[in-house]
Amino acid sequence: MLTYSLTDENCPLYEALYRHIREDILSRRLRPGEKLPSKRALAVHLEVSKVTVEAAYGQLLAEGYIRAQEKVGYFVEALQESLPLPANQPLLIPPHAPTSYIADCTAGSIVSAFPFTVWAKLLREVMADYGAQLLQPLPPGGAAALRRAIAKNLYDFRSMSVSPEQILVGAGTDFLYNVLVQLLGRERHYAVENPGYGKIASIYRAAGAVCCPAPMDDEGILPEALENADVVHISPSHHFPTGVVTPIRRRQALLEWANAKPGRYLIEDDYDSEFRFTGRPIPTLQSIDQNGKVIYINTFSRTIGPAMRIGYLVLPEVLLGRFRENLGFYACTAPSFEQYTLARFLDEGYFEKHINRMRKFYRTQRNEIVHALESAGFAGRITILEKDAGLHFLLRVETEKSDDALINLCARAGIHIRCLADYYDGNAPSQTRRTLVVNYSGVSGENAKTAIANLEKLLLEET
Question: What is the pTM for the complete model shown?
Answer without folding.
Answer: 0.76
